[in-house]
Amino acid sequence: MDVIVGGGVVGLSAAWRLARSGRPVTVVDPAPVSGATHAAAGMLAPVSEVTFTEEPLLRLGAASLARWPAFAAELAAEAGLGSGALDYRADGTLDVAFGADDLAALEETAAFMEKLGLRVERLSGRECRRLEPMLAPSVRGGLLAPGDAWVDPRRVAAALLAALERLGVPMVRARVRELLRGDEGVQGVRLGPGEAGGGPYPEELRAERVVLAAGAWSGALAEVPVRPVKGQILRLRSPRPLLGRCVRGMVHGLPVYLVPRGDGELVVGATQEELGFDTRVTAGGVYELLRDARELVPGVTELELAEVVAGLRPGTPDNLPLIGPGGEPGLLLATGHHRGGVLLAPLTAALLTGEEEELAPLCAPGRFAA
Ligand code: GLY
Known about the structure:
With 370 residues, the protein is α/β, with parallel strands linked by helices.
């Protein structure tokens, strides 16, 4: 049996695909979908979110994005939902610029993308506003990544839970105190109560393999170079969608993005704060997000502020995930996805089932062993 430690989008996706491949699987999490997945915006934007130094991440993101349409369709069907149930949309991301410096930076990005063979379109300010009439008049130009997509992570997680239930995969709502280790390596997990007391749960779960997918908390159970990177995010609500696609921009030197949902929700994200395991939402976080979002789309201030939430991304030293053998027999890692857990979930699952091999070296945890 495989025990998956962690019931976020990565752990649940891994559990779903491993169970589908015929392996007996159990998921352990005291409160599934309460971590980074609950806070995530769901951008599937490997092109517009990439930076110059992150070509390997772009390769992983592009490969996972290519898997998303089939992953979403199959997941919706297996969860017994309709095809639009995950709010998966592939209408691109528009990166906008205000000043000459921003425009020059977008031009450099466009050249880099084109060198890599990726499709991007340079747009004037007027063309940007034709696509997105709610954009600020001060937007001077933009870059459209037409292949980028997005999805509602909470709907994805709910569908994964439903699909796992249909497959009969047990969900143990308990905390993992420690990994069980013996002469043969990792042999299972020792359990403790969940957040609300949990139970009933066994004291131990024996497993052939343990897949550690505990996000920012992974370092409590094994030697993994993962640190929490806090992200605060806002959910705004309007009677109808304000934007037709994801919009991003740099404001006051900080990136801000707006992700529209079909039901009129608009997600604004996200802060990036290195404060350890701190999940407080702060006045400053809300202020900065709203201030910067208003620069891009002035109309956001009219919307209802429905929710503010903070999550902890699992950051790694090189911003690449840790997927594969975890340095101890019986231990597999599926963690360290930092800003890309939702995007990289299908690829992560494919790497764990062996369906994808070529990209495995880029994510191999052994790269930090030395
Ligand atoms: N992927 C966007 C974020 O982590 O904020």
